[in-house]
Amino acid sequence: MAEVTLDEIVALCKRRGFIFPASEIYGGFRNTYDYGHYGVLLKNNVKNQWWRSMLQERDDIVALDSAIIQNPKVWEASGHLAGFTDPLVQCLGECKRRFREDDLREEQLGDENAEGEIRCPVCGGELSEPRRFNLMFETFVGPVQDESNKAYLRPETAQGIFINFKNVLSFARKKPPFGIAQIGKSFRNEITPGNFIFRTLEFEQMEMEYFVPPPEAGKWHEYWMEQRLAWYTDLGIRPDMLRLRAHGADELSHYSSATSDVEYDFPMGWSELEGIANRGDFDLTQHAKFSGEKLEYVDSGSGERYVPYVIEPAAGVDRAMLSFIIDAYDTEEVEGRQRTVLRLHPRLAPVKAAVLPLVNKDGQPEKAREIYEQLRELMSAEFDTGGSIGKRYRRQDEIGTPWGITVDHQTMDDDTVTLRDRDSLEQVRIPASELADELSRRLKEPWTSPKMGAPA
Ligand code: ATP
Fold it and tell me: Which of 93, 147, 188, 340 is the most exposed place for a label (fewest CB within 10 A)?
């Protein structure tokens, strides 16, 4: 049973400036969203934690930032031009809308591959025969809009990595197993309605291609499944909300010999957060064939040469962010009042500390601002004087700020402040001079969700 609805999450994200529908004043635009202030901060933290786990905490992965629009040959070689398609049917009745055939079979017949008649879910009309529809967005480079100038917005970041394999090998002094990691926007002309930011036309991916000696591919596939699952739980997602699901033979992409998805129990049911695929040598071999370049590893000592296999953990920034928000969302009654709180891992929280003067006079705002200016050197902090203290805390709870610091009349006498914990609501009084050390210590501590074990 889901504990929070997607509508509640959408409402909180809008109310607190995380995520807005894109082009809202014009009535919105398909599956697109804009990120507001706290959304940007949270998204940056998600990406930073991914980079941290891929780069800072190990020495076998290097970073890359490749172009969104590449030579169209890339997509021919990768198989996306021919194969990156969904089956579409159009209503032949009144409404003329288009749907994904596999979605309708799943909804109406219980299985996306089931045989049997399906009808338009909007007007009940008959449906056309399915037509393959390519998900890549097309564009034209240069002033002339003809076939020879056609290009594509990338539908995944991975190909930018494969086509740079040789460049990276020539400078990085790495030998398999080693990885190349990239975060960036990808674009897909999705026609399925999106479930908020779960499925959008443009989204950010965090992809890492791990190049390994072919006999070791199975072992590294297992390794990366474990690592990636642990990334989510270390950042506070409750383990019973996550599972690994191996793809059946009929689900595998054209390039993959084995894929497992990390799935999260979203309000709409178990859905993919990240795919971890064994891509074999498909991509390097294809690009070698289409470009005429040798894309292989040559051992300088033994002279041994081979095309490495690739293990790919491919995650979505936006989907990860949605799961972090959903998993953190909580409501409780405190002293007769309803409180909504985002119990985010402190490392993900958009704001780590809010400094609040109890009253807006008697030197308290000036003192609070001084403390805030010291803290913001170390971590993202806020200073807020507007409204009653209760209201200001409610705001911080809803954006997931783990620590609140109140400056009161006693502060003016002895330079101590109260430090409030978002989750336990415990308040301790400590000297203002110890705040920075105390919060830095708390930020480094392992953290588990207080929702763990709580009844759903
Ligand atoms: P789905 O089956 O949900 O369409 P996929 O299997 O096609 O996803 P991949 O190609 O494996 O997705 O992409 C890797 C990751 O990129 C996904 O696990 C997801 O987190 C993210 N992603 C893919 N498509 C979208 C999208 N339209 N909107 C948001 N994130 C996406």
Answer: 147
Supply 370's token pair: 């001084």
List, for residues 59-73, the tens digit of each pLDDT value: 999 999 999 999 999
Minimum mean pLDDT among 92-106, 301-315, 362-376: which range? Answer: 92-106
The CA distance from 326 to 267, in Å, is 8
Q: Which amino acid is at 194?
A: G
* Cβ neighbour number for residue 36 with a 10 Å cutoff: 15
Instruction: Verify whether ligand 1 is closer than 6 Å to residue 263 (CB atom).
Output: no
Q: List the alpha helices (DSSP H) in 173-256.
A: 217-234
Whose structure tokens read 């999450």?
Answer: 9
Closest CA to 328 of 261, 422, 439: 422
- Mutational pocket test of ligand 1: of 154, 192, 268, 272, the residue with most ligand atoms within 8 Å of the beta carbon: 272
For residue 18, report the distance from its CA to the centre of ligand 1, in Å: 21
Average pLDDT over residues 388-412: 96
By residue count, the chain amounts to 456
Between the CA of 273 and the centroid of ligand 1 the distance, in Å, is 8
Peptide bond into 455 cis (omega under 30): no
Query: Which residue puts its alpha carbon closest to atom 19 of ligand 1?
Result: 316
Interior angle at CA 289, CA 284 and CA 292, nearest 5 = 105
CA distance 65 to 167: 13
Q: Which two tokens stand for residue 38?
A: 């706290």
